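Appendix B.2, paired examples.
Example (i):
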Amino acid sequence: MSYVEAFRQRLLEGGNKRDFAIVTLYTYTGIRRSECVNLRLDQINLIAKEIYVVGKGDKQRTVYLNDKTVHAIREYLKVRNSDSPYLFVSRQSEKMAASRINQIFNQYSDIITPKMLRHYFCSHALDTGDYKIHEVANQAGHSNVQTTLIYSNPSARQMKEKANKL
């Protein structure tokens, strides 16, 4: 089990469906913290497995969801008790503060941060070979593919495996 899956498992066992949905969304979409806290219910289509994100510079993009993310959000929505237009709410506000996201991560890990999960998504999507570089750039909201190339550096193990194939 990867360190990210172990982290998600700790949150799942913690029983807070909102926090688990947040971490799952980060893990499998690569969204930014500001995008997460500003995500509104009307931007989510769980049937189509899409969210419509407003990113840096008010640029809009469609982010595609996997089954794990859809399931985590559905489970959270079953217990969400708010009239707020925002997906993630807190007891104090109709919109979760960005600092609260950091607190959630700190509660379950001394190492993993929202930014790390964004990096994890980008690297993992490229490592699997299922995504092309421009697809990861689009999903992560990178306006320049050069930004995404940072995540494409193969590990020493991967390079040795490739060398063995020659």
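Example (ii):
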Amino acid sequence: MSLDALVTISNQYGRDERYVLAGGGNTSFKDSQYLYVKASGTTLADITAEGFVKMRRDALAAMWEKTYPTNSAEREAAVLQDLMEARVPEDAHKRPSVETSLHDLLPGQYVVHLHPALVNGLTCSNGGAQKAAELFGQKALWIENSEPGYVLAKLVKDKLTAYQKAHGTFPECLLLQNHGIFVSADSTEAICSIYAEIMGTLEKALTEQPDLSMGAYCEEEMEDRKQELMACGYDVVLFHRSKTIWEFTQSSQSFEPLSSSFTPDHIVYCKARPLFLEKGESAAEKIKTFTEKNGYRPLVIACQGLGFFACGETEKKAQITQKLFCDAAKIAVYSKSFGGYAHMPQELIDFITNWEVESYRAKQQ
């Protein structure tokens, strides 16, 4: 069965941290009548057939004939309602991925959307669009920054229409600025082949690799900072230090590439911004000021010349935060090969920070 193949390829990539971390990424399979898409709150690593939502494609197509509100909150609420109504009755208890409409647009029977740090080194760089054209030519379609959900799907729809008119076919993949990659094909073997080619091409283009192996550090200084953070009310505090992280934490200037968000995943699992503590600064005072300014406590606290701490309500949540911040460090290093790092625009960070869809996803950890 095709759904079995979808489960297999979802697990394959979901268990490979080069491609996706935590609940990021989504996959789908479609025939002429139905789209089977990853349900929100599930993870590719352990998803089963039950983790996909069966959607009526005629109902999804009808959404393009509607006029939605211009207000973003009202629009996304209306779109979500229509997505819910496109579910078959037996799947009415599941919530489809917010990117369902985008999956339905792509021509291949299978769609695999992932967030590899290597790919995002390109999509989160200042020279990403130009470098993508040089490396992949017409095989890849670059999608510039956009509000997620309906606005992004509409942008992709228009770009695919223009691409098909110009080239008489569809691209093998979409490269979404500050987001990730979509690959579409009629077989899982073709999906794997396309991903292998993309990753191999990017590997050859790299001028620098990150080193995130655990490095030596001052145990006493680390313990002092950890106890200081625990006293601030954090339930779990995990420490990470590596050569790459150590280089980024030498000063507030060297930390700049990691000072804001690269992708929606980093906002969901690490919050929009980390806190940087210089030597001798009080964690309690800086956390208080940071929280008052941003409206949330930092989940990532980097300490000058030491490393960073990932904080969470549980061990699992802190571990995910730690992995995603290391992912951001990888992206920052990879981006040097493609024109240097480029964070998400602040208006897009603000949108995602306050978006109900991503709040829902964060609660599923």
